Amino acid sequence: GEDVEQSLFLSVREGDSSVINCTYTDSSSTYLYWYKQEPGAGLQLLTYIFSNMDMKQDQRLTVLLNKKDKHLSLRIADTQTGDSAIYFCAERGDSTLTFGKGTMLLVSP
Amino acid sequence: GAGVSQSPSNKVTEKGKDVELRCDPISGHTALYWYRQSLGQGLEFLIYFQGNSAPDKSGLPSDRFSAERTGGSVSTLTIQRTQQEDSAVYLCASSFGQGAKRDTQYFGPGTRLTVL
User: Fold this and answer.
1) Which residues of B are less than 8 Å from A96 in CB distance?
2) What are the residues whose beta carbons fall under 8 Å from the beta carbon of A94, sequence distance 6 or more?
3) Residues near A46 by beta carbon (within 8 Å), at least 6 away in sequence
4) Interface test with B, best of A48, A97, A98, A104 (most B CBs within 10 A)
5) Which of A17, A91, A94, B87 has its CB surrounded by the most CB atoms within 10 Å?
6) Is B45 part of the contact surface with chain A (CB cutoff 8 Å)?
7) What confidence tier does A107 reach under pLDDT thresholds 50, 70, 90?
């Protein structure tokens, strides 16, 4: 079945770049998503990438997709303390999303 | 415009009681999803509604869980005879449901359910 894996924790210093990695198994996935969840809040859509793209950039966010290796990454440039949150990778199946367990990003001053 | 709203934001109940959780999707969205997020776990898909089609119930963990969507808009998730393992955050999402890009899901803030 579909499975999405992420590392559980990442710690960076303010101003550094953060890279959150994700692997997925469904080769037929058409869209892949990154969501952000702040404490006590729901999921906020950050960005998505279509499977025929290699890269997508949106301000401080860069998404890289290696479809051959089924590897997705999210790079946050100039990471700020406000970026501290849990980041979820998700792949779109037939009708629903399959999520990873989330990566907790901790940004220290 | 308004996003997805859910109520209540927090619910504490006793084991064995029934609970109802409500979701108001974004206006114009035809697809509605329920997920469960347990401590230390990812998001677990529960049920999916698309327009007037029969819902996809493949993620419901037991027959104590049910959901309905009235008039193609508001949805209610009902958990009967709650158990302590039902304690979790229940998230609702909605999307346009047509085509890949328009199928982007937008999430509500969730309902935190605690079963004592």
Assistant:
1) 33, 45, 48, 56, 59
2) none
3) A33, A34, A35, A36, A61, A74, A87
4) A97
5) A91
6) yes
7) very high
DSSP string, chain A: ---EEE-SEEEEETTS-EEEEEEE--TT--EEEEEEE-TT--EEEEEEEETT-SEEEETTEEEEEETTTTEEEEEESS--GGG-EEEEEEEE-SSSEEE---EEEEEE-
Tokens of A48: 């998505």
Q: Distance between CA atoms of B91 and B12, rounded to whole angstroms?
A: 16
Is A45 within 8 Å of B106 when comparing Cβ atoms? yes
Render pLDDT for A11-39 as a digit per residue (tens, 0 to 9): 999 999 999 999 998 877 778 999 999 98
pLDDT above 90 for B41: no
- Is the CB of B26 inside 8 Å of chain A's CB atoms? no
Residue A95 has pLDDT above 90, yes or no: no
Q: Which amino acid, residue B2?
A: A
Torsion sign (Cα): B22, A86, B39, B116: negative
Name the closest residue on chain A to residue B56, using Cα atoms: A95
Give Rg (Cα) of chain B: 14
Cα diameter, chain B: 42
